[in-house]
């Protein structure tokens, strides 16, 4: 009597990838709402620069993202399609070249605040002394499946697509990094060879950033990237999408591994 329910459960579990593909195919067959397209053109100017094939792919990825992820307004922030489409389009740029349909499998919710938000943390100091710290943030990525964003900063980051700063790209880069555990600057890459290449290039670029900052020299990569390898990956992701030509000139090996990982070359946009 137990065998039949068990077999049914196994059959259901084995069919899940098929059911997921079928659901996603059904979503992307749904016409993209004209109001959403207007939001993309108005709020996300990089969309207008994309080749037609990537514009279509971005629209599909936005549809899938919005069907899968919950948006929650916090501290009185109302969330409508303006916020949802603007944020989703920026996040989906990161997966535009990926063959998996652009999923963020560990992400469940996007929390949207009406401005910078306060986070209280316990910091461990010298000798194990604990201190309460209060930080004001524009965005944060949690490994439990949430991204938290200040709406004005998410909106303004999209409006200025070439200044090298974008809080949505930054926090969703952390989500990519967290797909294989705690953020450490190395997202899933698929093979030991690619991991070895990634580690060598990233470590060299990270050391170059620290040396440049110590010498007081200007550069493309923001100083915040020197905080730790996880922040370095998030910061260079911003530069890759927003200042690609300058990053390629300054750090060609770094640009090459990022381009290979993302499957994109934003210099062509």
From TrEMBL:
It comes from the Bacteria. Pfam families: Peptidase_M90 (PF06167). InterPro entries: MetalloPept_cat_dom_sf (IPR024079), MtfA_fam (IPR010384), MtfA_N (IPR042252). GO terms for molecular function: aminopeptidase activity; metallopeptidase activity. GO terms for cellular component: cytosol. PANTHER family: MTFA PEPTIDASE, PROTEIN MTFA. This is Inner membrane protein.
């Amino acid at each position: 009597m137990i065998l039949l329910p068990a077999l049914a459960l196994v059959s259901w579990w084995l069919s899940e990838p098929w059911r997921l593909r079928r659901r996603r195919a059904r979503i992307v067959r749904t016409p993209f709402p004209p109001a959403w397209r207007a939001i993309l053109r108005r709020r996300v100017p990089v969309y207008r620069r994309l080749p037609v094939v990537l514009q279509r792919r971005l629209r599909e990825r936005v549809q899938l993202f919005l069907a899968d992820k919950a948006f929650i307004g916090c501290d009185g922030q109302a969330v409508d399609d303006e916020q949802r489409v603007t944020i989703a389009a920026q996040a989906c740029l990161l997966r535009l070249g990926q063959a998996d349909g652009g999923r963020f499998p560990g992400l469940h919710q996007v929390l949207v605040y009406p401005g910078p938000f306060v986070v209280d943390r316990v910091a461990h100091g010298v000798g194990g002394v604990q201190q309460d710290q209060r930080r004001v943030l524009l965005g944060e990525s949690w490994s439990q499946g949430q991204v938290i964003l200040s709406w004005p900063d998410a909106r303004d980051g999209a409006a200025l697509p070439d200044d090298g700063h974008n809080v949505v790209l930054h926090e969703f880069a952390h989500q990519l990094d967290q797909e294989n555990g705690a953020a450490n600057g190395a997202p899933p890459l698929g093979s030991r060879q690619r991991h070895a290449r990634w580690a060598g290039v990233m470590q060299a670029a990270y050391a170059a950033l620290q040396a440049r900052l110590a010498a007081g020299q200007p550069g493309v990569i923001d100083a915040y990237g020197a905080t730790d390898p996880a922040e370095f990956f998030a910061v260079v992701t911003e530069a890759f999408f927003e200042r690609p030509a300058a990053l390629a000139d300054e750090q060609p090996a770094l640009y090459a591994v990022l381009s290979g990982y993302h499957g994109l070359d934003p210099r062509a946009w």
